[in-house]
Amino acid sequence: MPENLAELQREIAELSDRVAALRNTHTMYPDDSADTAEAALAELGFAEQLLQDCGRRLAAAESAAPRRSNGDDERSVLRAVFSQLSVPVVLLDHEGYIRRINAIGADRLGSSPGYLSGKPFAHFVDLRRRAAMRSRLAAVLRSGESASFESRLAQRGWAEDVHMTLTRLDVPTEAAPLVLVALSPPLESGEDEGPAPLEPEVEDQVVVLAARRLDVLTRMTRLLLASAGPGGAGRPLALDDAAALLADSYADWVVVDVCDLPDSAEQARRAVVAGPSGEDEQRRMVESLDPLRSEIPREVLKNGESLLNQLIDDETALGEAAGGAPVLSALGAGSLMCVPLKGSRGVRGALTLIRRSNRGSFRLADLGLIEEIGEHIGLALPPRTAG
């Protein structure tokens, strides 16, 4: 329970955020709501306890002196646990940031312990599972009772179903409790939630990636030349074809926003959305959004500067659907980038590419390629795009 007014305000704000996230998750996935409902009930119980007992518990907390003893021994025990355990374990602070991770755990998350330290653990959880995981983490910190549940890790080109066990650790030398996360194989094999199998390892090889980029650039150049050549003059640039090419060979989802007049971001409109076949509902959802109500396209249209999110930490960066659900979560996004379409008279639009969490993240080299393609598209757009 909170110990002072500032802590109480923080608890209420965090509770509000978690409830909103759970509500959005339930809106997007009504047929798979068991885990979300259980987390929601836990949040409801906490809210009731907060309203009924906050005053009494605050008074008790104010008068209680924190116990400080055997700090060195506790730290030694924690170090021994991390050095000897043969299962992946992660130590989180009370805000969910990685304090320490053993070598096996770092390997499971696909990076080194040094890189992972200080990162929010939620960033390595699939978007559609983050809300439930955060609520369970908060419940463990509040109650001190361990929690075990099925979840999914997804980041930087891999995706894996796991069973998580969260345990609170009260360390005398720490002002706030810590949480130990143990990762193990899932207890039950449910339906595959991923949109596609993982990319093969060869996709990480430099030569193969360079060849792919060259192939995409060559195909896009041919498309642009065909639009400007015989038979193409006088008709608008085939944005549908350009977006479909990128969605087919370089990303899962491609969004093109254009301005009817150069450097008039306030008049931007969504022109094209290309994505996987059979996902018409998601496509219509993205098509219906106003680009100016989406943080990333709006900033690119306004400033003319590219944005690269190798690790998506804000599910609302591309906007929210009619029911308030984050678009990126609905698309299963793991990485995205957005580049301006620059014409001879300024910014003509924005090109957004999205990769799902089971594909390799976009890199700086990818950003350079798409920036070049975006410039070619911007120059090929007619002086005024037809409405």
From TrEMBL:
Any matching Pfam family: GAF_2
Listed PROSITE patterns: PAS (PS50112)
Superkingdom field: Bacteria
Record-annotated PAS domain positions: 74-144
InterPro entries, alphabetized: GAF, GAF-like_dom_sf, PAS, PAS-like_dom_sf, PAS_4
Protein's recorded name: PAS domain-containing protein
Organism encoding this protein: Streptomonospora arabica
